[in-house]
Design a protein that fits this description.
This protein is an alpha+beta fold and 429 residues long. It has a domain of 131 residues: UbiD C-terminal domain-like, CATH 3.40.1670.10. It contains ten helices and 23 strands. The strands form five sheets. Strands 5, 6, 7, 8, 9, 10, 11, 14 and 17 form a nine-stranded antiparallel β-sheet that branches. The protein has a five-stranded mixed β-sheet with strand order 19-20-21-23-22, with helices on both faces. A four-stranded mixed β-sheet has the order 1-2-3-18, with no helix packed on it. Strand 19 and strand 20 form a beta hairpin.
């Protein structure tokens, strides 16, 4: 593990393709990325945003693991440890914050290099920016797509999770909520922000443990003028308020690659914009591998924890074809009959938005789709080893869900019975 080397988002851009040609934020970043198979990229010449750069396609599971100097298979266990052993971040002064050393940018969101990736989208969106909010003694850190309405207003899609609950409570009291919008945070912060817990948990305490484990240094926060603590070395910090007003948000191409609906969502007013010297904007492309990684990897330890309660779980992979959200492969070491089916039930309970799970033995690489299909074709019998349930809670990201939000779910048990002679079920090469 390369401890102490990775202090922020920009430390993960090594090896990126540099694009020096003049590039428009309107559709062109997306087009060039697609032409280059969505490799790591940095766009250095954005005429609409002089002095700003855009980076994308950095944070896939393998690229993250390589950057942190760890095995890909170890990342899930490191995330699980951080979830269960949270630490307090360190607060530093303004003079020690890279995010504040460039001074304050005039508030004009239209001058930042915020991409408009898909022509079908409503407009320019921040898709990799997180929101840090504090209200009534609780802090929440989470991802929310953010449509740039005008120079100082954003409309953010707040799904019914903790921040939505916080906003509803504040509005019932006639209160607005002070927040910080963060772009270009350290990946340990982004992975923590993408986690979802049943109870209110301060995600920055998870990030602090991850930062110490993967970077070898404490996670440092700086207190902004609105009282909110935010990552001291992020690329951009925007002081803002979630207002009492709503406005249209969407359409938006979401993680499934399908077009999400127009809804009335909260309006955010931005008051101050801070950034690092020569800042790099994280311009994540929705529905591509980076999006699926940030959505899926933080769910893997939750699934693994749930499965471990009934059987020894080795690894979990949220599949790219399942959009990093709706489908997973779980490997286990079964020691008794029926543990494959128990693993299916536990995995679906561990991530309730999931629609499909395939359970395999530990000799199968869960990230290798060819090996997984081979295991199904040689170890699975459809009539005996399949579980189908109806009228289950579905994901709002699944366009095929029923009108009441429910869906059917399926699990495949492609494990071998314990004690069986494995020779006929083992490939010779």
């Amino acid at each position: 593990m390369l401890l102490g080397l990775h202090m922020g988002f920009r430390d993960h851009i090594s090896g990126a393709m540099i694009i020096s040609n003049s590039t428009s934020c309107i559709h062109e970043i997306m087009s060039i990325s697609s032409q280059n198979n969505h490799c790591k990229m940095i766009f250095q010449n954005i005429p609409s945003s002089p002095g700003h750069r855009v980076a994308l396609n950095l944070l896939t599971r393998q690229r993250l693991s390589d950057s942190f100097g760890i095995n890909s298979s170890d990342l899930i266990d490191i995330l699980a440890n951080a979830m269960n052993n949270r630490q307090t971040p360190a607060e530093v002064g303004i003079s020690d914050s890279n995010a504040l050393k460039s001074g304050q940018e005039k508030v004009d969101l239209t001058k930042l290099p915020i991409p408009w990736h898909y022509p079908e989208d409503r407009g320019h969106y921040m898709s990799a920016s997180i929101i840090i909010a504090e209200y009534d003694g609780q802090r929440n850190v989470s991802f929310h797509r953010q449509y740039i309405r005008d120079a100082n207003h954003i409309v953010a899609r707040l799904v019914p999770r903790h921040l939505r609950t916080m906003v509803d409570k504040a509005r019932a009291n006639g209160d607005t909520i002070p927040i910080v919008i963060v772009n270009g945070a350290d990946p340990t912060v982004l992975l923590s922000a993408a986690m979802s817990f049943d109870e209110p948990i301060d995600e920055l305490t998870v990030a602090a443990t991850l930062h110490q484990e993967l970077n070898g240094t404490p996670l440092e926060l700086v207190r902004l003028s609105n009282g909110i603590l935010a990552p001291a070395h992020a690329e951009y910090l925007m002081e803002a308020t979630i207002t009492l007003q709503d406005d249209d948000e969407g359409p938006y191409v979401d993680i499934t690659g399908t077009l999400d609906d127009v809804r009335q969502e909260p309006v955010i007013e931005v008051h101050k914009i801070h950034h690092r010297v020569d800042p790099i904007f994280h311009g994540l492309i929705p529905a591509e591998a980076e999006h699926k990684t940030l959505m899926g990897i933080p769910r893997a330890p939750t699934i693994k924890n749930a499965v471990n309660k009934v059987v020894d779980c080795v690894d979990v992979h949220l599949t790219e074809g399942g959009c990093g959200w709706l489908s997973s492969v779980v490997s286990i070491n079964p020691v008794a009959e029926g543990e494959g089916r128990k693993a299916i039930e536990a995995a679906l309970a561990g991530h309730r938005s999931m629609k499909q799970v395939i359970v395999v033995d530990s000799d199968i690489d869960v990230s290798n789709s060819v090996q997984v299909e081979w295991a199904m074709m040689t170890r699975w019998q459809p009539d005996k080893d399949t579980i189908i349930t109806s009228n289950q809670k579905g994901s709002s990201l699944d366009p095929s869900r029923n009108s009441d939000g429910t869906t059917a779910k399926i699990g495949y048990d492609a494990t071998l019975p314990p004690g069986i002679n494995r020779a006929p079920f083992t490939a010779v090469r």
